[in-house]
Design a protein that fits this description.
442 residues; alpha/beta; UDP-N-acetylmuramoyl-L-alanine:D-glutamate ligase; Protein-Tyrosine Phosphatase, Chain A; 3 domains; 17 helices; ATP-binding; nucleotide-binding; ligase; UDP-N-acetylmuramoylalanine-D-glutamate ligase activity; peptidoglycan synthesis
Length: 442
């Protein structure tokens, strides 16, 4: 069988490595330059590859093509693959064909990385043999090739779910839905939502689907879809007879037996993280992890880098790095969790943001807005009659300097940009790292 892998990053190299290890004929093609350490990896493992080009004849002669999630689905080469009827899969689909491990797969518009990491922490803390992959950590395919895990906890994006055929997690979680990546889904919110729901399409009645009962779009979609998996809800707004909910500052899970703990004991900040903790706890209970172990994991989990990450407290001012907040919904959660007057650093590449969604929160929580981007006009125009203190900056150094001058003891400086990072930074990680570096400068 001829396997062609498109994309020479973490997932692509992992998929090519797994194919090679399984004795399949494999060729990797990347239209851009491949990073040096990945080239070295491919060479060391005798995997044939090309960069800066797509050899169409060779690609279209494949039996099975594995596509990296970063390649847009409307590109010319993808159209030609579809026309030829060649099987096109994501790395998670490809790798899942070569393992019998139980897969716990997490998707949603926000909170995926935190919840995936939290579930991994719960399993690991209980002594289970577990791997972490998908959109986070090391390639799932490479782990399947080299490590014999009994469980995999995978963060899964809509782009990866677009390219599945048989992928069937033991437990799937859909945390929430909000408008994101609509440019890849014909600017149709429902089309994007349906892509997320593909996480459960191959599940059977011996599988589990954990979903957010408070999420409006999820409710709408669930009225139209027939889900075969056992559905278990969580809610922040209502008590449930089965599932997870909050009752008088207690996090409560009701499945076969009951688990509860005080919300104040959770290591994570913010209401959205209470919801994430509910979802993660349900997964733990399904896997029959005992209550004490789940409680211990929820109390000891460390926030994921760039997601409401506490950086420092300097002269009474707290600095929080939420660089991963690349859409309005993510920034909403961050602002909602702020307890003190907040200097808000916002801006970057706008993805069609509607700032009306956070207008009320900004009025109540934010004392000053510091815009950070090459083009701050849209943010300034929206908030100019709503907030007196609005500043425009075009570098992280300047943004932090202005924020420090505006804040006093008892305040919080929050980087929660609402936007993509590519105008001034290599990635949201680069943006977050620069923020931390500038905060910690004398």
């Amino acid at each position: 069988m001829k396997i062609v892998v498109l994309g020479g990053g973490e997932s692509g190299c992992g998929a090519a490595y797994l194919a090679k290890k399984k004795g399949l004929e494999v060729f990797l093609s990347d239209k851009s330059a491949i990073k040096e350490h990945y080239k070295q990896f491919l060479t060391e493992n005798n995997i044939e590859f090309e960069e800066g080009n797509h050899n169409e004849e060779r690609i279209l002669n494949a039996d099975w093509i594995v596509k990296s999630p970063g390649i847009p689905k409307k590109t010319e080469i993808i159209n030609k693959i579809h026309q030829k009827g060649i099987r096109l899969s994501s790395e998670i689909e490809f790798a899942s064909e070569f393992t019998d491990a139980k897969i716990i797969a997490i998707t949603g518009s926000n909170g995926k990385t935190t919840t995936t990491s939290l579930i991994y922490h719960i399993l690991k803390n209980d002594g289970l043999n577990v791997g972490l992959g998908g959109n986070i950590g090391h390639s799932f395919a490479k782990q399947v090739a080299d490590e014999n895990h009994e469980y995999y906890v995978l963060e899964v994006s809509s782009f990866q779910l677009d390219d599945i055929q048989n992928f069937r997690p033991y437990i799937s979680l859909l945390l929430n839905l909000s408008k994101d990546h609509l440019d890849q889904y014909n600017y149709d919110y429902e089309e994007y939502a349906l892509a997320k729901f593909r996480i459960t399409e191959n599940q059977e009645n011996d599988n589990f689907f954990i979903y957010n009962k408070d999420d409006e779009m999820s409710k709408n979609i669930l009225e139209k879809l027939e889900i075969k998996a056992k559905m278990i809800p969580f809610s922040m707004n209502e008590k449930l007879t089965e599932g997870g909910f909050v009752d008088e500052n207690q996090l409560v899970i009701k499945l076969k037996d009951e688990f509860s703990m005080k919300v104040d004991e959770l290591s994570l900040l913010g209401n959205h993280n209470v919801a994430n903790s509910l979802a993660a706890s349900i997964a733990g209970k399904i896997l029959e992890i005992n209550n004490e172990s789940i409680r211990n994991s929820l109390m000891t989990f460390q926030a994921v880098e760039h997601r409401l990450e506490f950086v420092a407290e300097i002269e009474g001012v707290k600095y929080i790095n939420d660089s991963k907040a690349t859409n309005v919904n993510a920034a909403y959660y961050a602002l909602e969790s702020m307890k003190n007057p907040t200097v808000w650093i916002v801006g970057g590449v706008d993805k069609g943001n509607d700032y009306a969604e956070i207008e009320d929160l900004v009025k109540r929580k934010v004392k000053a807005i510091v815009c950070l981007g090459l083009d701050n006009e849209k943010i300034i125009d929206f908030f100019k009659n709503k907030k007196e203190l609005i500043y425009s900056t075009s570098s992280m150094e300047e943004a932090v300097k202005v924020s420090k001058s505006l804040s006093k003891s008892g305040d919080t400086v929050l980087l929660s940009p609402c936007c993509a990072s590519f105008d001034l930074f290599k990635s949201y990680e680069d943006r977050g790292n620069q923020f931390k570096e500038q905060v910690l400068k004398n």
